[in-house]
Amino acid sequence: FAQTSAHFRLRSSLERSTTEFEGNNSQSSSWVRKFLRKMKAWVMFMALGFIIVEAREQVITLGVHFVCDTRFVEARTEKHHATPLRDYLEIFLYDVELYLQKSQCPKIKLFLTNVTKTTKEEELIFEKTETEGTKTILDPTFTLGMFEEWVQTKDDLKNDSIVFLLTSLMIDDPVGNGISKKGYSYFNGACTLGVGLAYDSGAWFDGVIHVAQQIVHMLGAPWDTTNDCKENSRTLMAAPGTPHNLSNCTEEALRKTYNENVKKDVCWKRISNLASDSKRSLPAKYFETESYCATRRSNVDQCAAGHPYNEPARCLIGCCFGNTTDASGLRYKMPDGTLCGDNKICIALVCSSVPKEDGD
């Protein structure tokens, strides 16, 4: 607020000048006194305006480029979804932004810059995998480092704020502390080593929480594993992680990252507003044209109205093997964005009020 201080110094100087003028030149023309008073009012207005503008600019806007490996693309194909991949990922990223809505100072805005599908040949360069029985497991430590090197060789990737590798491979980290079992990134790496990876089924947005955690991690927020911010506190950066609360540690870290870069030319200041080109909707909208129950399990449909497994107030949906109210079935969480009450939607199994600007 150096400019603000300058405004107030100028205001004080004008006040002194006005007082001296009025005391020593009491017979002078009145228009000069009026002019100086108007100047004081103008300086006060400009100073207040600067403060308001500064407050409005407390936003981190990140452009995200998703790189989808062949396992991720194949998983979508197996579900027979007709919705284009880019549409899925635009909804996915807006859901991630919704999971970060508790951060108000700064706010975090996310926009999809592009989508890239990799080939098996490219994946041999950066994906480190091991086979255990019939399962193929991804090593995130080695993969992230090699993925970052690969990104730097691609002109269409290296200028994005964040590049995320999405995979449907199982992730197992033999080195890390196990807090984030399905996501990985460099701490405080946004704008520098701006790469991350995360698991997602490619069909029902189950990777949203992992990407949300990694973005905050890349913005300098530690995992909640300390006495001040405990792991069992049901916060975003705890295990398993929930978007409904941010710990003090997370809030302080995000403020610190923002404040330390206010006057720097960091990557989030170079992202143009892409909102007009993005689909700002949530998974519930996606499943208006895709079968949610069939996506979760084959041979089931949404349970009939009145079935006890349907509990919208608890954000639970029943998927049954028949269409009667006593049919056997399974219970799943409702897709984010499903209406669950007056002006409320489901977010990660909680019926939640959402600020109007974040509404679907």
From TrEMBL:
Keyword Zinc (UniProt):
yes
Q: Known SUPFAM superfamilies for this protein?
A: Metalloproteases ('zincins'), catalytic domain
Q: Which UniProt keywords apply?
A: Hydrolase, Metalloprotease, Protease, Zinc
MF terms from GO for this chain are:
metallopeptidase activity
Q: Please name the InterPro entries in this protein's record.
A: MetalloPept_cat_dom_sf (IPR024079)
Organism domain of life: Eukaryota
Single biological process term from Gene Ontology: membrane protein ectodomain proteolysis
Name used for this protein in its record: Putative metalloprotease
- Organism of origin is Ixodes ricinus (Common tick)
